[in-house]
Amino acid sequence: MRMSSLCATVGLLLAAGNARAAGFPRSLQYLQQTADLVVVGTASGGAVAGTAIAFSLQVQRVVVGNGGVAGKSIPVTWEWEAGGMHAIADAAKYVTGTGLLFLTRSDNGWVLLPVMQRATGFQDTYFPEPPGPIASAYSYAPGASPVDALASEMGAAIESAGCGAGRLGYLHNGALDQLNSPVIQVLYQRWAGSTETCLRALGLAGQIRAGNTAALRTAAQAASSFEAPALENGVLVQSLQYWFRAADPTSVGILGQIVVDSENGSLPFRRAAAFALAAIHTKEALPYLARLMDDADPELRAESVRGLGSFANGLPVQTQDGVPSLSFLQSQPNSPYRTADTEQHFPMNIEFLEKNESTYLSFWKAWWQSNHAALGY
Could you give the angle at the alpha carbon of 51 between the alpha carbons of 49 and 54, nearest 5°? Predict the structure, then answer.
């Protein structure tokens, strides 16, 4: 079966991928599983020590590991990976800051596990948090599991950072979910009720990634209010586009109402909902997808063709898990609506569809006219 949209697939791969190249952040799951000690502390006194930077870390609280170091100053080594002795000497001057640090044990003490691979500045080696006790809304019991404790600390860090969180921005689009902690959805629920627009967008985005239909409805009703915080609105839109795959009739109906609301709907939100609807392409999705064939926006028309073609050709729901193997492009056996014509009119990519749009639209309009009654519409 041909690919319906090369651009869409590339987007999914980018969203789903776990970056391995230099200069990219490590996943929270990797950091949590690799570190022997996770603490909140204040760093100071950076000095070059051979090919590393040595500094002191005043530990405020221990999140994971040996609680005996709480309140103490411990020596830490940052193994320099970025190259250049001039650069390392410059970096040592700026070893200062308070936040969440990940450490591994060595024969000589503690070694910093930077949150950013090949970090060139100390600010890229840890997650900033304010000094002092953790905010009461994020406090956790001493016996909390490592992932729950870490999830609480990350929630506190993100909320304290506020809008346009800079170094914490990459955590917003699903990175926290990797911890698989029940605390994460509690955090999202808290943020979804925030009076801060950007934090509210992040909370709703997290709930939407988990398939929360009520959050989708809330986000749809207030979509235009989220357009100002660009980073957070992007997270909200991408969470709907790439992660929301609840295929029950209620959820599909809400998606459908979003995509056909050309009068009041936010266009980026409508496009994201159309992508999700085309990816789900259940029978209940078809009437909404069919209406999009006459929409003024070419991207929405393209999604209508992708969704109708996916249904007719018996493709499974397009999810993140199916992206690496492209299994979402493999037709299911005995698909009753699949024919040589439906396969031929399933476009190879979005550019090809745009060049031959009238042909595709003409075919799928005729297909819908011939089949909608048998489908119950």
Answer: 35
State how far the Cα of 318 lies from the Cα of 108, in Å rounded to an integer. Answer: 49
C-beta of residue 300 within 8 angstroms of C-beta of residue 290: no
The structural domains of the chain, with segments of one domain joined by +, span 26-132
By the 8 A CB rule, do 90 and 72 touch?
no
Average pLDDT over residues 2-27: 45
Q: 22-31 as b/e, with b when 16 or more CB fall inside 10 Å?
A: eeebbebbeb
pLDDT digits (tens, 9 = 90+) for 149-159: 999 999 999 98
Separation between Cα atoms, residue 318 and residue 146, nearest integer Å: 33
> What pLDDT score does 352 carry?
74
145 or 322, greater pLDDT: 145
CATH topology of domain 26-132: OB fold (Dihydrolipoamide Acetyltransferase, E2P) (2.40.50)
pLDDT tens sequence across 281-298: 999 999 999 999 999 999
Cα 37–Cα 42–Cα 44 angle in degrees, nearest 5: 110
